[in-house]
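Is it possible to get an amino acid sequence alongside its tokenized fold?
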Amino acid sequence: MTDTVRASSGLRQKWRPSLSLVVFLVLASVLSLPLFSLYFLKVYQNQLIQQTEAELIAQSAALSAVFHREVETSIPTDVALGTVIPPAAPKPSDVPYQPIWPTLELVNESVLPPRPEARAPSTPADPAFVALGARMMPDLIATQNVTLAGFRLLDPHGVIIAGREEVGLSLAHLQEVAEALQGHFAGALRVRISKHDQPSLYSMSRGTGMRVFTAMPVIARGQVAGVIYASRTPSNVFKYLYELRGKLLPAIFCMIVPTLLIGFLFHRTITEPMRELVERTDLIGKGDRDALRPLKRHGTSEFARLSQSFLGMAKRLNTRSSFISTFATHVSHELKSPLTSIQGAAELLRDDVDAPAMDDEDRRKFLDNIIADTDRLAKISGRLRDFARAENPVALGATKLSASITGLRSAFPALDIRASGELDTPMRISEENAAIILSNLADNAVRHRSSTLDLSATQQGHLLHVKVSDNGEGVSPNNRTQIFDSFFTTRRESGGTGMGLAIVRAMLDAHGGAIRLLDSEQGTAFEMTIPLAHEPTA
């Protein structure tokens, strides 16, 4: 649409997205939604972290039970243990459980730096605990081979007594180990330093470089006898997707193809018909009549109805424009003859004033011509007013044929008007407009030397069929196709304007009715169809 069209239509000059852009954004959002959802998988990652913590708790609890038994059976009572644990409050006999729930979260928990290196202990581990670690070492290795978790057994002072590495060194300086040495279970989420190269997809989430650490105290003889220090890297959804990349690519392809098909469907059914309709509007506005043809593609039924309605309106406007042009030509022609006659007569009378050369009879003849032509101009002006009113009726209203016939008899007393049929059936037309229609038909009958006018009305469905016939001269076969044309008349010498039947047809068209010429052996016969008015409810 051009800027001129926008300005003339009164549209506010502001940026508006095109339908193609809106469709593209919607499809792009649908297509990218699964990709952006990868960034919101932290909730699932938290679940994986807590699942890993829960598994470490369960495995540490089993090892803690073995550690506790070893302390009770093999550690002499004179060997010093750790922090004294105050006795717990007694619990009901039906609640013997003391569960430890996972609490680590990637969202809320601050991730600690990588685990610090073990340090040299201030005091070496007691030989009894060293022997205990040696006895449990096979159990740790067997558990680690199955669970892939790392385990270290610590003595009451945080010194490593069993583990694949760092045996004899101390981890008491670690936050989670320090809490466990005080008799409290502790967990930590630390940055993981991998010994292997990580796939590039790992960088998309913080959860891929994390490692879960748990420190579970072993309570024996009312004191902390040691710590089960466990660690494991949680499973990661991105690693899982990366490992399944061979299956993931076909899934992405299957997601892209339907999206493209939806976009193509939108293009064929919405954007393309709308763009063509806009182009047609521009061409029709420039006067291109070839644009008044159906669209190549209508897309949806709504666009089909919209285009048909628009093109129908454009055709009607084009027809109206052509009619106005032709009508103006006819009007100028009809007005030119009487105006020329009046001007010529007036000039002759003016010249006679300066040099009298004509007698009173000639002057009267010229004045009679002026009066006759003036009367013709008045009739043409009145018919033009009636024709404009017929094209654009002020109001529909409702009336009965019987009421209009009464006025018609008064206006044409020399005409024998006979009426029969359903004369009291309400018609959807005002009484004044109905009088205009019947008056023009009666005037047409009088001008063709008719002495009678017969009207008969019959209701058929929602229409009232009115037959109007006279006993005049009738219509010759050559003129049958032209009688409803504006300014066509065979009685111009008797004052005919050629507008009567054109006014009747235009008035009926404006009210949803119609008129046609019937075959008649004598005179002229017309059939009118007029919509019925709705009966008022009681």
Remarks:
- The chain has twelve helices and twelve strands.
- The two ends are 53 Å apart (CA to CA).
- The CA atoms of residues 245 and 251 lie 10 Å apart.
